[in-house]
């Protein structure tokens, strides 16, 4: 039996190398470089791409950059017309710039010619990762990795009878998955400074990072649910009264209240990595983070294997929304290997490859994968992922996305973390900053 | 008469070249030698400076190469000088500068004074004290980030030991009131040895004979310190202040590693702010004006200071 396996593997390897050699000899094979962030899903993609290498004969190289410098590094690469990347898994907010500045190849004809239908993907991911302008059938990417901000909590702590009893007597309702942001704050405050098994623990790890996009990705989960809108729905780029409405200011105040009362000391500049560390080390009862971390949580010895639970961002007074993460995969217009890059996208879009992508820890955006009856049972977080993807909202995806993000980071961080001014002043300032950007862009 | 080596060398010069060189003045030859260096300096120092000054009067943004560049006159300068955020940044820089220099000079001089006394293990202690300045600022930044951790940081535990406070009850780099002190402490830890070395050089340059004469005049140690040690070491102290002042005015790496300029803008020094304007917001014209203002400030202050230093040396 063992020998048969070995023989199969050897034959497979010889065939694969044969195909590769033939392709190389034909001159069709090439080396493709795929650029993405350095994180767990990227490792899964490396594994997945081995199938593509064996099938096509092309060699895959990868350029992975840590999240905190990912946007800087890759946007500079695109803005300078660099040829480092043939394929780019760029952040959802880059799609406008990618399309309007000619960085990404428009994929409509390619999709039509190869039977790739955007209707087969989760609608929110198509709008978020592939379309520009939004809600028009102009595609510059294939949804590659569905992601959304959600919550992880210590199920084992929540289920302790003595804590449940104390919580109910204090707050008047059961300790469990929070349904509203207020409940989440109550629970976080309940755990803040509590002694659990001889260790002082804290309420929640939330996004507070200033340098890249951290605090924006966190605070929007509060702002959206309190009534914040990016613009007047009837008049594009009309910001006043929507960005800085009284409801939005209340949402910002609520986020600051959570930071002030229920987060670990010293968490003034935390993003994905710090939140993961705090949660895994047993410092916090809950953590805000993108869904990509959930496979890692489940596999973790200390907090995985049933000790953790997952829930979507809870509702606020004005609805239930969650910040969209995730990315689409695009062909870089400056690449000289666009044909091979398109081959990769064609291969990646296949349902069986998307299924394998999910198995390896990548969040497929293909409806056939996530709507499969077995999907919900496949992982403890699968249902939460689906629920969360149904309530997503995204940051501006304008070409001036980076110029819009910087003032938001600054205004929000200065208010929430440093306590400068009021929530209303912070949002009023943001309206001024964004108005200036849109004026510079000629959109106002 | 035998020919000198220079004459021998001259005789070996190929006739063609000799014909070309013949007639060149010493001054011309000197220019030929100096020209490459001058050219290099112009290319890498003077030209960028002039270009920066030129850009400071425009609305140029390097990330929008296709957009028209307009001449905006003094608008960038006006906006910078009227921007309260920039004045806050200047204030944060001044606070950082004054306190780091004061602490480093005080502690550095005290250490130099002690090390200058001959005792057993003198060299070993000097090496140990000098160790922090041998480290990279990025390493020191990371190292102090861990020391300042509220849950596990040694610094918090030491403070807690002496004050009885809960170590997790305060965050040196997360608190707006403590963060400016956090960067001052880390910088002082790292650069006090540098000041100490300069002061030590100053103290060792004072001839023993002066102290011996003072002893003969029955001057007390205290009087010797104030009338001999301090005045004679003063030029060295002033030099140390100049070096640390210039270095800390452009402080970037250590602070970025420690606090990233936060929380809020409390530790955003001018160099960090300038970098954000130039390479995150890509406001090239605006940041050029900002750089010119900083350049003029540092250059002006340094010139005044150097004049004062020269006067002290002449005394």
UniProtKB/TrEMBL annotation, chain A:
Keyword Electron transport in annotation: no
Keyword Cell inner membrane among UniProt keywords: no
Locations listed in the record: Periplasm
Keyword annotations of the record: Signal, Transport
Pfam families: SBP_bac_1
Domain of life assignment: Bacteria
SUPFAM superfamilies per UniProt: Periplasmic binding protein-like II
Any one annotated GO CC term: periplasmic space
Signal sequence region: 1-25
Similarity comment: family membership: Belongs to the bacterial solute-binding protein 1 family.
Name of the featured protein: Putative ABC transporter-binding protein
Biological classification of the source: Bacteria, Pseudomonadati, Pseudomonadota, Alphaproteobacteria, Rhodobacterales
From TrEMBL, chain B:
Gene3D superfamilies, per the entry: MalF N-terminal region-like, MetI-like
Keyword Membrane: yes
Keywords per UniProt: Membrane, Transmembrane, Transmembrane helix, Transport
Principal location listed in the UniProt entry: membrane
Record membrane topology: Multi-pass membrane protein
Signal peptide (from-to): none
Record-annotated ABC transmembrane type-1 domain positions: 90-305
Transmembrane stretches, start-end: 29-51, 96-115, 127-147, 154-173, 179-203, 224-246, 288-306
GO BP terms: transmembrane transport
Any one Pfam family match given in the protein's UniProt record, by short name: BPD_transp_1
Subcellular localization: Cell membrane
GO cellular component, one term: plasma membrane
Family statement: Belongs to the binding-protein-dependent transport system permease family.
Name the record gives this protein: Trehalose transport system permease protein SugA
Biological source species: Pelagimonas phthalicica
Gene this chain is encoded by: sugA_1
């Amino acid at each position: 039996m063992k020998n048969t396996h070995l023989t199969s593997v050897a034959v497979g390897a010889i065939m694969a190398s044969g195909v590769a050699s033939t392709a190389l000899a034909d001159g069709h094979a090439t080396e493709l470089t795929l650029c993405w962030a350095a994180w767990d899903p990227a490792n899964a993609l490396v594994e997945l791409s081995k199938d593509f290498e064996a099938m096509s004969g092309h060699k895959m190289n990868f350029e992975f950059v840590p999240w905190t410098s990912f946007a800087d590094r890759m946007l500079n690469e695109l803005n300078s017309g660099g040829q480092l990347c043939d394929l780019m898994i760029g952040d959802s907010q880059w799609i406008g710039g990618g399309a309007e500045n000619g960085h990404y190849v428009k994929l409509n004809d390619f999709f039509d010619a190869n039977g790739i239908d955007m209707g087969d993907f989760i609608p929110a991911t198509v709008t978020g990762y592939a379309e520009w302008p939004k809600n028009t059938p102009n595609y510059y990417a294939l949804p590659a990795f569905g992601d959304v901000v959600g919550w992880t909590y210590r199920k084992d702590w929540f289920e302790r009878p003595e804590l449940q009893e104390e919580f109910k007597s204090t707050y008047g309702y059961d300790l469990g998955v929070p349904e509203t942001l207020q409940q989440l704050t109550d629970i976080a405050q309940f755990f803040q400074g509590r002694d659990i098994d001889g260790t002082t623990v804290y309420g929640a790890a939330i996004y507070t990072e200033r340098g890249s996009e951290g605090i924006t990705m966190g605070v929007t989960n509060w702002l959206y649910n309190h009534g914040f809108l990016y613009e007047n729905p009837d008049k594009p780029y009309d910001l006043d009264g929507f960005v800085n409405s009284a409801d939005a200011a209340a949402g910002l105040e609520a986020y600051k209240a959570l930071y002030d009362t229920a987060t670990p000391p010293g968490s003034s500049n935390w993003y994905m990595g710090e939140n993961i560390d705090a949660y895994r080390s047993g410092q916090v009862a809950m953590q805000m983070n993108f869904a990509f971390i959930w496979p890692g949580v489940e596999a973790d010895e200390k907090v995985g294997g049933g000790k953790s639970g997952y829930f979507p961002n809870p509702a606020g007074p004005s609805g239930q929304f969650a910040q969209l993460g995730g990315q689409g995969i695009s062909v870089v217009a400056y690449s000289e290997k666009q044909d091979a890059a398109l081959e990769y996208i064609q291969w990646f879009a296949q349902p069986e490859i998307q299924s394998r992508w999910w198995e390896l820890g990548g969040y497929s955006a293909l409806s056939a994968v996530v709507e499969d009856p077995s999907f919900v049972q496949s992982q403890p977080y699968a249902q939460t992922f689906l629920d969360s993807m149904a309530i997503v909202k995204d940051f501006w995806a304008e070409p001036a996305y980076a110029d819009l993000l910087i003032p938001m980071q600054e205004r929000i961080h200065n208010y929430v973390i440093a306590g400068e001014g009021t929530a209303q002043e912070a949002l009023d300032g943001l309206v001024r900053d964004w108005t200036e950007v849109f004026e510079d862009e000629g959109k106002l | 008469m035998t020919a000198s080596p220079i004459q021998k060398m001259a005789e070996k010069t190929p006739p063609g070249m000799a014909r070309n060189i013949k007639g060149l003045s010493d001054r011309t030859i000197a220019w030929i030698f100096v020209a490459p260096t001058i050219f290099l300096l112009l290319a890498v120092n003077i030209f960028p400076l002039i270009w920066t000054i030129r850009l400071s009067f425009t609305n140029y943004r390097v990330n929008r190469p296709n957009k028209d560049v307009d001449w905006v006159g003094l608008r960038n300068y006006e906006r910078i000088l009227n921007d309260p955020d920039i004045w806050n940044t200047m204030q944060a820089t001044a606070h950082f500068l004054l306190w780091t220099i004061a602490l480093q000079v005080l502690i550095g001089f005290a250490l130099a004074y002690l090390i200058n006394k001959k005792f057993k293990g003198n060299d070993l202690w000097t090496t140990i004290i000098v160790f922090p300045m041998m480290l990279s600022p990025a390493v020191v930044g990371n190292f102090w980030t861990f020391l300042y951790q509220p849950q596990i940081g040694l610094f918090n535990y030491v403070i807690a030991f002496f004050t009885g406070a809960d170590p997790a009850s305060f965050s040196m780099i997360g608190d707006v009131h403590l963060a400016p002190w956090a960067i001052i402490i880390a910088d002082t830890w790292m650069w006090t040895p540098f000041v100490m070395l300069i002061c030590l050089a100053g103290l060792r340059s004072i001839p023993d004979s002066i102290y011996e004469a003072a002893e003969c005049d029955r001057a007390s140690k205290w009087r010797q310190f104030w009338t001999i040690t301090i005045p004679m070491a003063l030029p060295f102290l002033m030099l140390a202040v100049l070096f640390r002042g210039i270095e800390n005015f452009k402080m970037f790496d250590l602070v970025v590693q420690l606090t990233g300029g936060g929380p809020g803008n409390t530790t955003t020094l001018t160099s960090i702010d300038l970098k954000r304007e130039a390479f995150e917001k890509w406001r090239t014209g605006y940041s050029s004006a900002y750089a010119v203002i900083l350049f003029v400030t540092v250059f002006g202050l340094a010139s005044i200071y150097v004049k004062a230093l020269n006067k002290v040396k002449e005394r």
